[in-house]
Amino acid sequence: MSNDNKKIVLTCAQPTGKLHLGNYLGAVKNWVALLKDHECFFGIVDMHAITMPYVPADLRRSTLECAAQYIACGLDPKDCHIFIQSQVTGHAELAWILSCLTPVGQLQRMTQFKDKSNKQNESISSGLLYYPVLMAADILLYNTDIVPVGHDQKQHIELTRDLAEKFNSHYSETFKVPEAYIPKVGARIMSLQNPENKMSKSDPNQNGTLYLLDDPKILRKKIMSAVTDSGSEIVASEEKPGITNLLNILSVASNTTVKDLEKQFQGLGYADLKKAVADAVTKMFTPIRKKYNQLIADKNYLNEILKNGADAAQKKAYRTLSKVYRKSGYLERGK
Ligand code: TYM
Q1: CA–CA gap between residue 58 and residue 50 (Å, rounded)
Q2: Euclidean distance between CA atoms 150 and 164, whole angstroms
Q3: pLDDT tens digit sequence for 191-223
Q4: Which of 13, 94, 146, 277 is the most exposed, having the fewest neighbouring CB atoms within 10 Å of its CB?
Q5: In angstroms, how far is CA 234 from the centroid of its own chain?
Q6: How confident is the model at residue 333 (pLDDT cuts 50, 70, 90)?
Q7: What is the pTM for the complete model shown?
C-alpha cells in the first residue's frame, strides 16, 4: 500500500527525562504494532517540555536520548517519521489559530492543568494553560486519523476533536476529526509506591517508577519493594490497587490475560507475583537497553534520522498550514 492510501498515525512524548514503564506499555509498545499498516509520525515534543521549569542543557540531551529510546523500542526509522517538534514550522502557528477558538475556561478546567499547576509553587506560565491547544495543533497539522496514547491523554484528544469540529464548522471542512487509540490493558500504569497515582517521571518517590534504562538490579529492587495490599489473594479488584497494578504490568509484559494470571497465581504469595513481574520486566527491557547503548553512541546516525523525520513532517505540516491560512483569511505571501 502506498503511503497516500494509509491512515495517518501521530503521537508524541515529552523529552523530560527518560521513558518509563507507563510510557512503554501505555504508549510506545502499541505504536510499534501500528507501523506496518499506517503512515506514522512520532514527535518528540520539546516545545511542550518548556511549559514547566527546566534546564536547557538537560532538555538538549534528553531530546536526543528520547529519539534513541524510540528506536530502541522498535520504532524502525525505515517505517516511520521520527521528528523533533521545534524543528518543524507550523506547530506553534496552528496552535495560535486554534487558541483563538478555545475558551480560556475550558483550558482552566483541564485535569492535567489543574494537577500540574497545583504542584507548582512558582508562577504558572500561560504556556502550561495553552499546552492542550499546542497538542491539538500537533495532531491536526498532520491530518491524523489515529492518536495512540495512554489513558491520561484522553481529555486532550477530546479537546482536539472539539477544536477540529469547531474549525470545520466556522471556516468549512478542513480537518479530519482524529480518534484516540487507548489500549485495554496498560493504558494506566500506576506508581509502585503509591498505586493510587499514575507512574510518572516527576514522582517525588522515584522507587515507584521503572525506567526503560534502569539497571536490571535496580528494576528488581524497585519491583520487590512495591507496595501491596492487605490480604493474600492475588486478584485484580478496586480494593487491591497494588496487586491490580502488578497484574496489569505482568499481563501486558507476558501477553497473558489478567484472568489467566489470577488462575496461575492461585495459592501463591505476593512475593511470587513480584518475582514474576521482575523477571518479565527485566526480560522486556534488557534488549531495549542494549540497543539504546549502541544508538546513543552514534549521534551522527540519530541526527540524520531526525533530519529525515523533520523533512517528511515539514512537507505535511506546510500543506495543512497553507490550507488553514487560506481559510482563515490570510493573504498569500508575495501576492
Ligand atoms: P507524556 O510524555 O507524558 O507520555 C507519553 C505517552 O505515555 C503515556 N503514559 C502512560 N501510559 C500508561 N501509564 C502511565 N503511567 C503513563 N504515563 C504516560 C501517555 O499517555 C502518552 O501517550 N501530552 C503528551 C505529549 C503530546 C502528545 C501530542 C501526545 C504532545 N503532543 C500529540 C499525542 C499527540 C504527554 O505529555 O505525554
Answers
A1: 11
A2: 21
A3: 999 999 999 998 999 999 999 999 999 999 999
A4: 146
A5: 30
A6: confident
A7: 0.96
pLDDT of residue 1: 55
Q: Would the pLDDT of 17 be above 70?
A: yes
* CA of residue 267 to ligand 1 center, whole Å: 37
pLDDT of residue 4: 72
Q: Cell numbers at residue 259, please? A: 484472568
Question: Among 116, 166, 275, 291, which one carries the catalytic annotation?
Answer: 116
| Share of residues in the chain with pLDDT > 90 (%) | 91
> Measuring from atom 7 of ligand 1, which residue has the nearest CA?
23
Quickly list DSSP for 271-290: HHHHHHHHHHHHHHHHHHHH
Mutate to test the pocket of ligand 1, among 8, 12, 19 (most ligand atoms within 8 A of CB): 12
List the catalytic residue out of 7, 166, 201, 327: 201
What is the atom index within ligand 1 of the atom nearest the CA of 151?
20
The minimum-distance atom of ligand 1 relative to the CA of 45 is 30
Residue 123 banded pLDDT, cuts 50, 70, 90: confident
Joined together, the cell numbers standing for residue 194 give 503509591
Percent above pLDDT 70 for the chain:
99
CA distance 291 to 87: 25
| Cell numbers describing residue 41 | 509520525
How far apart are the C-alpha atoms of 56 and 60, rounded to whole Å?
6
Cell of residue 307, nine digits: 533530519
Angle at the Cα of 139 from the Cα atoms of 12 and 86, rounded to 5 degrees: 60
